[in-house]
Amino acid sequence: MILIVSFPDNAHVNRVLEHITRPTTVFDIADFPSRTQLNVSFSGESTGVNFLSFTPPGLVEINLAEIGAVWFRRIRPIGLDPALTDATSRLFAWSESTEALTGLWHAMECFWMNPPAADEAGQRKIRQLQLAREVGLSVPETLITNDPERAAAFIDQRADGAVIRKAFRNIAEAPRSTAMVTREDRAHIDDVRYAPVTFQEFVPADLDLRVIVVEQEIFAAAIRSEPEYRTDYRLGIGSAEFSPHRLPDDVASALLALHARLGLAYGASDFRVTPDGEHVFLEVNPGGEYLFASDRTGQPVPQAIAASLERHDRDLAGAG
């Protein structure tokens, strides 16, 4: 059986489900513990781990020992019962529910895309850049700091328009796009003391790339944007031109090595291709989107994810 830990209205999940033929269950963490029961028993000589999911048309009971593959993708927060109104009680219920699920994940000795711990660690930009350099990928000159003096020196050592700033994570409450550092930004450089800022040398590029890795398969899409989106292609996706792209063999090998170091079976990376053909790595997102690229290039990313999950599920079934 294949378990998908995500949520039913996720377009990326739904597209993969179209290509899966083996028994599959989608578990939304937002249903736990208010609408989903978890029962784990250790008694006598038997060890039983059962996962009870209240999904239409009724109660579905899953023996975790029968799960051969898990796709862990963009989860929602735990859903506590609204009847639990006391703040301390809610905190305790959240803590206990989190501990139970975390323990459950570690008890499932099967194929994961991606293991939750690897998914969490793989999102950390400092670790990504450290490992990317170690495996031989080209990365931009970067400074991450909350020291205004160091930030000012990094900017002043480069020409106007040669440095960008970016956030670690683009949260909905305080959205920040990747942008060129302006003279106005430089004038407010003391604000860096409030929180670390990532400064990078701007990489002039002919193309941006969204590169999807599914185990050992690589699907690279070239994105040619309008000039006004040269610092962040995401803002101009609607008017951009997409086409399949082949990574140079050394870049492909280094990217797979990065995935191996991070423990990722899936990842969506962003690269820039400079006018002289250099492929510069920017970041990898362990749960990154692929449909905006695969739909416009025809690359079979959903099929590859489905095939990977089914292959590992069959391996477990065969071993049993």
Automatic annotation (TrEMBL):
It comes from the Bacteria. GO terms for molecular function: ATP binding; metal ion binding; ribosomal S6-glutamic acid ligase activity. Residues 129-310 form the ATP-grasp domain. InterPro entries: ATP-grasp, ATP-grasp_RimK-type, MvdD-like_ATPgrasp. Keywords: ATP-binding, Nucleotide-binding. GO terms for cellular component: cytoplasm. GO terms for biological process: SOS response. This is ATP-grasp domain-containing protein.
